[in-house]
Specification:
Layout: H1 6-11, H2 16-30, H3 34-60, H4 63-78, H5 84-96, H6 102-119
Helix pairs in contact: 2-3, 3-4, 3-6, 4-5, 5-6
Length: about 130
């Protein structure tokens, strides 16, 4: 059986920016601020995907990574207040690269949905 801990996973993060951002997720989780942890986790995931694509573009001169980043930037600029570009980024990475497989995509999409509920809870008359 494989032992898993968030702390050991944290230690395996290579990118220093991602590691720094994930430290906030870990801190929120450890203090019981689970909704905050989920909201930040989604931000870390998106940032990490962008950092990976930038690395591929800059170091490997990867044209697919460059295209995904350009498409993402165009979507952001077209509607700066909409988070739609995030799911577009996720789908593009899954469809056009080998960074994510179908199960990764499904899990990450679930995190995005949980993030949405954590950041924007739906209240009904019964909840009030």
């Amino acid at each position: 059986m494989i032992d898993y801990s968030i702390e050991s996973s944290f230690e395996r993060i290579d990118n220093s920016q991602t590691k720094q951002y994930f430290q906030e997720v870990l801190s929120s989780y450890q203090t019981g601020n689970y909704r905050s942890a989920v909201v930040m986790l989604w931000s870390v995931i998106i940032c990490d995907l962008i950092y990976k694509l930038q690395y591929l573009r800059d170091v490997d001169n990867d044209s697919v990574a460059k295209d995904i980043l350009t498409e993402t930037e165009t979507k952001q600029k077209a509607n700066p207040n909409s988070p739609d570009w995030e799911i577009h980024l996720l789908k593009s990475v899954k469809d056009k690269t080998e960074l994510l497989d179908t199960s990764d995509f499904t899990n990450l999409n679930s995190i995005q949905q949980i993030r949405h509920l954590s950041a924007h809870p739906v209240l009904s008359n019964a909840d009030l």
